[in-house]
UniProtKB/TrEMBL annotation:
<dbReference type="InterPro" id="IPR006059">
    <property type="entry name" value="SBP"/>
</dbReference>
<dbReference type="Pfam" id="PF01547">
    <property type="entry name" value="SBP_bac_1"/>
</dbReference>
<feature type="signal peptide">
    <location>
        <begin position="1"/>
        <end position="22"/>
    </location>
</feature>
<dbReference type="InterPro" id="IPR050490">
    <property type="entry name" value="Bact_solute-bd_prot1"/>
</dbReference>
<protein>
    <submittedName>
        <fullName>Extracellular solute-binding protein</fullName>
    </submittedName>
</protein>
<keyword id="KW-0732">Signal</keyword>
């Protein structure tokens, strides 16, 4: 039976590979009108090339749009003289298909929003599959070069140990939260008479208990779900902060000491708290089995009191509302104040050029446009005159236009631009949103400031590269460690494994390399800080 399964898996993989690679050739096979690799690339302005060329692109597709019909990409083709041929894969299966492509030897010309990890960048860069970008940046990317000159930390974060840059990042200094915030159902707070949010784990427990016991949704049924999650990934970081832990795997404390979270005492207390919630059915009993859609369905049935999402209304349904407050991080008796993780501001692996690409200079000029004001505005908000217009172009002030045909602005924006729900290469700058911030946007910004930034939010661990040897060891250790740690997390919380077995768990984790993980990341952090 095992042999049959293995054979079937190989057959499926081969079938997927053939389907994916169809049309995944390099630009050498996609030139239009006989264009040659010696095509002239302009130093500035548009078009980028003097004769039309074609490049293949691989990106994750969220399934809401047809990339060939996107107004932003059509406009880019007209401006640049570069036609992109999209060999995309669904977002949910993108990682699998990306790995198949790298194994195939047939690469797209550019990877867009591919989420290339530092390990992938080093591995495929050293193999020559991804080309070094630093010279291309210097000569053909004035916008991105300006970003690097003004923010030395960005260059530090995207440079591999061999001195090369293999990918361009997402740069988002104005995004405060590390992971989607948690939100309260405001109607439940009002029903229970709360005019102040819980500030400690005990106060949070009391609130969740009251939700369950006091018919917070007022329907006469005991159907409330005080806290809902999907495998804890969406809420884990926020609750770990109550016990002095910044991040679920690796973080550095205020004394520059690196920790591996799953072996910390604070992690044990976090598990103990969630086990308490689980036993009293204050934590959704389907946390380890449900999908995000199932969680949302419960919330839209007015059952959920506390949850995570980009904005509350995206889970609760309906219009944007300022009645559902952002979760204020709580503290336990272990700490004087909760610790809060802040967005790193730099996400590597957003854009890379493969060795198959006959036009790397043109490709760099194409993506560099996205790191300037005009390109960032186009890819973030869509073309001028569709969803927005200038009210004063000199000051870059804009206003929104009615959504064509009505409906939700974000849903419509998703049909215009690829920068929706994926880590796309760009820079977020205040000028792109000047005049477009709504009352709701300002409220969210204030919630983030008062509940996160003003309370000392900071980056848990910097964006950096490990050496090839360190990365190889971490990759080997992580494979088994992550599986074991997550399995044990679920067992400890649900009671399948008693907390009395904590010491045995610690011995196993350290035997598998838990403490070694902290040592590796400590060495990398020390190098990063000294560089």
């Amino acid at each position: 039976m095992q042999q049959k399964r293995k054979g079937f898996a190989l057959l499926v993989s081969a079938t997927m590979l053939v389907g994916l690679l169809a049309g995944c050739g390099s630009s050498d096979n996609n030139k239009e009108g006989g264009a040659s690799p010696s095509v002239e690339v302009s130093k500035e302005g548009f078009p980028i090339v003097n004769e039309k060329i074609s490049l293949t692109m691989m990106a994750p597709d969220v399934g809401l749009q047809n990339w060939n019909n996107m107004a932003v990409l059509q406009q880019m083709e007209e401006k640049t003289n570069i036609k992109m041929v999209y060999n995309n894969a669904p977002k949910d299966s993108f990682e699998t298909k990306k790995n198949l492509v790298f194994a195939s030897g047939e690469y797209p010309d550019v990877f867009y929003a591919a989420g290339l990890t530092p390990a992938e960048q080093m591995n495929y860069g050293e193999q020559g599959i991804l080309v070094p970008l630093e010279d291309l940046i210097e000569k053909h990317a004035p916008n991105f070069k300006k970003v690097l000159d003004e923010n030395p930390g960005v260059r530090k974060s995207i440079t591999a140990p061999d001195g090369h840059i293999y990918s361009l990042p997402v740069v988002e200094f104005n995004q405060p939260w590390y992971r989607n915030p948690m939100w309260y159902n405001g109607d439940f707070l009002k029903k229970l008479g709360y005019d102040k949010l819980p500030a400690t784990t005990e106060e949070l427990y009391t609130f969740l208990k009251r939700v369950k016991d006091e018919d917070a949704n007022g329907n006469g049924k005991a159907d409330e779900i005080p806290l809902s999650s999907v495998n804890l990934r969406d809420i884990r970081t926020w609750l770990l902060g109550a016990y002095g832990i910044y991040e679920e795997e690796i973080y550095v404390d205020d004394k520059d000491v690196v920790h591996y979270t799953p072996i910390e005492n604070g992690y044990k207390e976090y598990l103990t708290f969630l086990n308490r919630l689980w036993k009293e059915k204050l934590l959704d009993q389907e946390t380890f089995s449900q999908t995000a859609e199932q969680k949302k369905a419960k919330a839209q049935n007015n059952q959920v009191a506390l949850f995570s999402d980009w904005h509350a209304y995206m889970t609760l349904g309906g219009e944007q509302s300022m009645d559902d407050p952002m979760f204020a991080p709580v503290k336990s008796d272990m700490v004087d104040a909760p610790v809060i993780a802040k967005n790193r501001g730099v996400t590597t692996g957003a854009f890379s050029i493969s060795s198959s690409n006959a036009y790397p200079e043109a490709s760099m000029r194409w993506v560099d446009y996205l790191y300037g004001y005009e390109g960032a505005l186009l890819f973030n908000k869509g073309p001028e005159g569709t969803l927005w217009k200038y009210t004063d172009k000199a000051s870059l002030t804009k206003e929104y236009l009615p959504v064509p045909g009505g409906g939700d602005r974000e849903d419509y924006r998703a049909t215009l631009t690829p920068n929706y729900g994926i880590p796309a290469p760009t820079i977020s700058i205040p000028e792109t949103s000047k005049g477009l911030l709504t009352e709701f946007d300002s409220w969210v910004e204030n919630e983030s400031k008062t509940k996160l930034l003003d309370k000392g939010a900071r980056i848990p661990y910097p964006t950096l590269f490990l050496t090839a040897e360190e990365q190889a060891e971490v990759t080997t250790l992580t494979s088994d460690l992550t599986t074991y740690v997550r399995q044990m997390e679920a067992k400890f919380i649900t009671g399948a494994e008693p907390m009395a077995n904590w010491d045995s768990y610690i011995k196993t984790v350290n035997k598998m390399g838990g403490q070694r993980m902290a040592e590796i990341y400590q060495a990398a952090y020390d190098r990063w800080k000294e560089s």
